[in-house]
Amino acid sequence: MITTPSPTHRARRVFAAALLCLVPAIPALADEVDECGALVASPYEAGHRDTGVDLADARLAEAEEVCNDAISANPDATDAMAWLARIHYYYGEYEEAQALLEPAAEAGNALAQQLLGDILIDGLGGIEVDEARAIELLKASATAGFAPAQNSLGVSYERGQGVPEDKARAAKFYAAASKQGLPVAEVNLGMLYADGLGVPENDERATQLFMSAAEKGDAGGMNSLAVSYEIGEGIDMDLDLAMEWYRKAAAAGSSMAQANIGNLYAQGLGVEQDDSQALKWISKSASSGNAYGQFLLGDLYENGQGVTVDLDRAIEIYREAAAGGNTKAEDALIRLGEAE
Q1: Do the domain assignments include residue 20?
Q2: Is 340 part of a structural domain of the chain?
Q3: Could you write out the DSSP letters of every residue in 187-215?
Q4: What's the predicted TM-score (pTM) here?
Q5: Number of domains in the chain
């Protein structure tokens, strides 16, 4: 079984404008909508497997203008609505996204159903949570074969959010999305194999899935692959490769990888022990709100590693980490007599 230095050592499951005044009666040219899709369609949408884009690589300003033009020319262009909503969702503009997603989801657009389902199940942007409707939307999208919706349903079954908790069913949805190459689903399925939840424990299979996601540039996959190299389960231990993949994951935005890099420096694992580097990387992770990074930072302050001993500061940080779900921070607070 994969055992890690902390229950949060790996990244956890990924447990991603108001409508314009529309001008009437001007038919949208098919190529306007097609151009919108070419700029911003998901690669998991039917008809866009080879042309869909990751929004991090998309020309979003151009796409937003083109999609707005397509919708202005034809208020019934629900595909363009879903694509424009995808941009707003990416920017965290959830109210603007919802206004576009409602009619597109009603029309049966799988992308719109998935995005709206994800907004409603977590109440993103302060929008009222509606788990029942969210699950209905996600099931419709998943039934249409849309991989991101299959992954989202997997998360719901894994957490028991809107549906009864069912790790085996979660694994089936993750597997369906993984078959389409969705990196986050590969990481999520790998985590279940690593822990033996809903599927037989299989460290080798877990690492294969992490590697597949990592090679696609997924930050969570890179971090999880690095953990596999660090602890040597599912693959031969190699601390040099662990650090290499942690650095790639950190560069891709993983705050968990930042914490893991700092932890290697703190312990002198695969690198020369360096308190200043440990503090640098752990502080980066903690400042982003990562609970594992916060726990590690609290540990540095408690033990005076790279900083002056400061128990008050350590306790403060442990509390932040515990609030974020880190059980080691909870244990530290109990040990220090500061449990609430």
Answers
A1: no
A2: yes
A3: HHHHHHHHHTSSS---HHHHHHHHHHHHH
A4: 0.88
A5: 1
